Amino acid sequence: MKHFDAVVVGAGFSGLYMLHRLREQGLTVRVFEAGTDVGGVWYWNRYPGARCDVESVYYNYTFSEELIQEWTWTSRYPDQPSILRYLNHVADRFHLRSDIQFNTRVKSAHYDEPTGRWLVSTDDGQTVSATYFISGVGCLSSSNTPDFKGLSGFTGEHYHTGTWPHQPVDFSGKRVGVIGTGSSGIQAIPVIAEQAKHVYVFQRTPQYTTPAQNHPYDDNYIRETKANFPAIKAKLLQSWAGTNIRPAPDRVTLNDSPEERQRRYEAAWEEGGWMNTGYKDLMTSVEANEKLCDFVRGKIRSLVKDPQTADRLMPTYVFGSKRPVLDTNYFATYNRDNVTLVDVKAAPIVEITPGGLRTAQAEYGLDTIVFATGYDAITGPLFRIDIRGRNGVALKDKWEDGRQIRTYLGIANAGFPNFFMITGPQSPSVLTNMVLSIEQHVEWISDCIRHLRENAIGSIEATPQSDADWSQHVRTVADSTLFPRGESWYNGANIKGKTMPFPIYVGGVPAYREICTKVAANGYEGFVLTPVPAETV
Ligand code: NAP
């Protein structure tokens, strides 16, 4: 059986950088990737309008000054083709492809106690062994198509935004149904509407979405950003989400007059992005949160001409308890004659028919259905792999199908020696700039592995107490905020039968980094380090 020092799953932002760092240390590494090329979510998400909602110049690796200097982003928010080009450039520049096996899905990874190795099996029938097993599967890579009655009999075409074909889909002259109004649907709908004969949007929950105000970058901005990158990175690391470089918000919403609040909300709306209003209590005060919700609802009313459609687009949940969305022309799209909003909360989808879709109220003739129905998020990508630790215990069982996630730092697990998760559950992950969080995890894991190897330590494993304490801490921090108040993919509410306690650490990037750094500095506090048996040293 072929042996590698490390097996890494996935060749997205996580897997590529992990491979690079481990190879620098001289490790043998094999990356398995299900796609035919690099890119991870940016390889699969090719739907019309796909774009990142973190600004381009902050959404890239920062580990290499040369890479920063040689790559130039062209617009404020990068579109999918640009990000994919960037990741291809990274793969070429650091000669990564030779250690990646494409078209290969990891089916299982079992810890073999007698040898202390991971046995990793793939869908092409091979099994390899590895000292370290590292997941770079991401949080949103397991797409969810709800089990609608009749789908297999649909005579038109259907697509999921998360597994979009590589060839452009032609919507011209077509009656298109889009199911779902999360980030993917909200980005795709305005673009599809420009081409299709008619678009029916099947909306279950109306969303707060604010304008991206995307625009091309000018040369001066790019020059300044490149010249000041170390300072920019330092500021990103100080910000709660790692997504902007402005000072931390310090104002209390209700301390300002209604006029001052309105002025700040308007300025943030015009500037675009994550509604940077300067208020620090958005996610801790229901009253403060409701003020912003009111403002956005007012905007919807002013942007959508038909009052009934505007009513149906009014969100009512706590802003931020579902992932906020940035859009381009979303609400204005409902003023088009060829767009119809259908409320499927009021009249749920009953079935897909051969010629379209039937709700409890009406039937819609469709040529194409776009499922923008999201993901079995956070735990889904890990549970697709049969990961088993000591005594053959499956990760899925340890976490009780997600009802009881227990990790240490969102990186490690008691009972699973030498298994590392990049941006795993209970780390800041999806509430932060993913690239920055990925870099931090990859660097922490590679420093850890260096420490193990330099000190003849055969395995590292979180203690059950560390698991329990970290999980409790994640819950306590989340419960002091409004984040867990919504029904969203954050807590599994989008998937029938799935429930999870809020699985993201919301203490912010600076606090989290400090905790991880301290754990390492204290000799990997909270872990058991087991020396390599004497006869094998
Ligand atoms: P999502 O946010 O989970 O949205 C899925 C949509 O489908 C929701 O509107 C959901 O309604 C609806 N839906 C699900 N099942 C349904 C059913 N059975 N019947 C009717 N409607 C149903 O998924 P997403 O839009 O793909 O986004 C997921 C995440 O990916 C985002 O939140 C973001 O983190 C990331 N993403 C980012 C970008 C970006 O960077 N700009 C772009 C795309 C995705 P409910 O709300 O009622 O559940």
TrEMBL record:
The keyword DNA-binding does not apply. SUPFAM superfamilies: FAD/NAD(P)-binding domain. Its EC number is 1.14.13.92. Gene3D superfamilies: FAD/NAD(P)-binding domain. Pfam families: FMO-like. It is an enzyme of class 1 (oxidoreductase). Keywords: FAD, Flavoprotein, Monooxygenase, NADP, Oxidoreductase. One of its GO terms (molecular function) is NADP binding. The keyword Plastid does not apply. Its cofactor is FAD. InterPro entries: FAD-binding_Monooxygenases, FAD/NAD-bd_sf, Flavin_mOase-like. Belongs to the FAD-binding monooxygenase family. This is Phenylacetone monooxygenase. It comes from Paraburkholderia piptadeniae. The gene is pamO.
